[in-house]
Amino acid sequence: MVSLDLRGVPCPLNAVRCQLAFEKLAVGEELRVQLDTGEPLESVLRQFRGAGHGVDVEAAPGREAATVLITITRCFS
Fold first, then answer.
1. 17 Cβ contact list (under 8 Å, min separation 6)
2. What are phi and psi of 24, to 5 degrees?
3. pTM for the whole structure
4. Residue ranges of the domains in the chain?
5. pLDDT exceeding 70 applies to what percent of the chain?
6. Rounded to a whole number, what is the largest CA-CA distance in the chain?
């Protein structure tokens, strides 16, 4: 599993970094990303859900409410 900490990274750079890391994954592998809520989260969700990949969102443990942890699963190549 690959992990990225993109807290404080502005749009669209956070989505670009997610895509670059995601492209290296095989089908079934996961990318875990810490993101700020609001526009950064929404843009990444739109990007990967819109493409048909699995995305789970959860609160980041021990973090402020402005941060979430998402897991993106590559469903196809």
1. 4, 6, 9
2. -85, -10
3. 0.91
4. 2-73
5. 94
6. 34
